[in-house]
User: Which sequence fits this backbone?
């Protein structure tokens, strides 16, 4: 077995490329087989390398899966964040919904990776999920000069549930029009938010 890579020196170009490959392969393996069946052996086989080579880069299956999960979430947050920052505050909730659904519909393996993480208790729920959107909703009302209105927490939770359901339907049926669904959610959200 290859010696384990130490963290005290920077990654070489080849090491960075191999880690990126392993992360992408792990996303695909988890999406296709589920978290429980995403063994080191299956990840290594999909990458065309030995288990020892995987362990050179990551200490365990959990470590490579955690890196893959972080990669997926970082990409989602960056994409949605850029969409939200590109519009005025009163349009941010719509941009959030459209890009969240667009990003996940365009990357079904990323969506499946997130689902697997949630199913295995690896992703936060509760306040950590609804609070950012609730903040956008409150800022949108404020940007339009509106006073107190509907409970933004409830709107954020309902919107998150709609997003989850639409992505689940898209994963079951690739022909399901997630963009049209996003527009329906935005219309419902804005009618409640700005009424």
Assistant:
């Amino acid at each position: 077995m290859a010696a384990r890579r130490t963290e005290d020196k920077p990654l070489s170009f080849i090491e960075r490329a191999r880690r990126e490959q392993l992360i992408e392969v792990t996303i695909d393996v988890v999406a296709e087989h589920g978290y429980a069946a995403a063994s080191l052996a299956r990840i290594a086989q999909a990458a065309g390398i030995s288990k020892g080579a995987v362990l050179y880069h990551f200490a365990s299956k959990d470590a490579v899966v955690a890196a893959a999960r972080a990669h997926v979430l970082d990409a989602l947050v960056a994409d949605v964040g850029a969409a939200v920052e590109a519009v005025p505050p009163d349009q941010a909730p719509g941009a959030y919904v459209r890009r969240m659904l667009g990003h996940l519909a365009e990357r079904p393996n990323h969506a499946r990776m997130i689902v697997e993480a949630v199913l295995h208790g690896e992703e936060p729920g509760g306040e950590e999920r609804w609070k950012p959107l609730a903040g956008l909703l409150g800022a949108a009302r404020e940007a339009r000069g509106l006073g107190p209105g509907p409970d933004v927490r409830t709107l954020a939770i309902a919107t998150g549930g709609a997003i989850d359901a639409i992505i689940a339907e898209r994963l079951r049926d690739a022909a399901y029009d997630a963009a049209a669904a996003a527009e329906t959610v935005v219309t419902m959200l804005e009618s409640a938010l700005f009424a």
Q: What stands out?
A: The CA atoms of residues 120 and 195 lie 39 Å apart. The radius of gyration is 20 Å.
